[in-house]
Every structure is written in C-alpha cells, then in structure tokens.
Hints:
Keywords: ATP-binding, Nucleotide-binding. This is Sugar ABC transporter ATP-binding protein. One of its GO terms (molecular function) is ATP hydrolysis activity. By secondary structure, this protein is of the alpha/beta class. It folds into 2 domains: about 5-80 and about 160-255, P-loop containing nucleotide triphosphate hydrolases (Rossmann fold); about 95-160, no CATH class. Helices cover about 35% and strands about 25% of the residues. β9 (about 165-170), α6 and β10 form a beta-alpha-beta unit. α5 runs parallel beside α6 (about 175-190).
Amino acid sequence: MSAAPLLALNGVCKRYGAVEVLIDIELEIRAGQVVALLGDNGAGKSTLVKVISGVAPADKGDIRWEGRPVHIRRANDARDLGIATVYQDLALCGNLDVVGNLFLGREIRRFGFLDEMEMERRTLHLLERLTRGVPELRAPVVSLSSGQRQTVAIARSLLGDPRLLLLDEPTAALGLRQTTEVLDLIDELRDRGLGVLLISHNMGDVKALADRAVVLRLGRNNGFFDVNTASQEQIISSITGATENAPRRPTHQEAAW
C-alpha cells in the first residue's frame, strides 16, 4: 500500500457571505510530486491556496496531513505542518538586499545584535543548493532580474524546511530563459522530495513539469488528469467547460500517481 499523501482535501467548502467560492473540493498532493492546479479566472484557485495556507480557513470539509486529520485555521498552522507559499506578487522588499529579504521578520541575533555573517552564510548555502547563478547577496532586490527575484522568494519560503510548497503563477512575468531557470528549480525541489502545488495558466509549463493536473471550474472540481497521458486539448476542454465532469474523488489509480 502506498504511503498516505502529504496533503489530502475531501469535501472542502468556502463561502463568502452568500457566495459559495469552493464546493466539495477534492485534492491530493504527494511527496516528490508536482500537481498543477488549473482553472479560468474565478475558478477558485486563489481561494483554495488561501485555504491550504491558512489565510482563509475552510468552512467545512476534511483536511488530512500524512493521513491524520488537521485543522488549518491560521498561517502559523500551515507553517507548523510544513506548508510554505510563494504568492504571485512575491512580497519582496525592493529596497532590502537578498539577505535582508530572506530573514525579514526572523532575523538571527547573537548577544542582542543582528548576526549578519550567519544570515549571509545561510543565505549563500541555500541559494547555492537552488541555483547556479547566485545573485549578489547584498544587492537590493529591486536591481535583480525577475527570475532572480523569483528564486529569492522561493529560497525564503524554504528557510523553514517545508515539505509542501504552493507556487502561485511562478513564471507569469518571466521571459523564456528565466522561465526555464525557475522550472528547473521546481524540478529540483521535486527531486528532493518536496510536494509542489503549481498554480499556472501556462499549459507549456504544466506539460513540461507537472505529474498531475487538477482542474477547478466555478468553484468545483472539473477534472483530474495524469499529465503524461492526457492531451492538452482534454485539459483545456475541462478548464473552459467544454467537458463537464461531475465532482468526484480521485480513483485509486489517480491517488497512486
């Protein structure tokens, strides 16, 4: 029997007032796997990320972490489980350097003073593990390329050694070369055993990188796909609603992907 998934959602719902944004959502993410979360604007992708990250807790439904039921009510709950999120806006401070951004709010102190040398050492060690082109550690982030900023944001999310990484449109504002660098980085994180939830509109990125794809439409599941066997047309049809799939749990075969 295969190990339990890192994260499993069953019947998750989220409502804002009278508006049901998520309805009976099913989702599984396993260690060493990239799952693409797809859907048109308004499908519920961002809300689902907020539910998983603890920013907007689910109103009902079952959430399991490695097979045991958990409650994610706050961002700290997700962080304590080992879930990290990199949002599309990256939330970096352009006037701070790379080290300052990585340790903003969790600075290392020694004898009451900032331990700049230790923070710089840890930053260099982490970036060298992630990328060949390490940016100048004391350069203001505003001076870095878009790809380098994305790398810094991902590096910051990895400081706490998470086991599940949520990436919201990580290549949306990148050129071809920078996109390739970020996709290579995500591939490396998967090889290191992290689970990755990739929110993307780019089918090229999805086909190149993801193991599975989960489609949301109007707040409901509208398709579960093995990216290696499903055609791009099948997935797009599910996104646009040309193919309407009744909400259902993944099959045993899908759960084993």
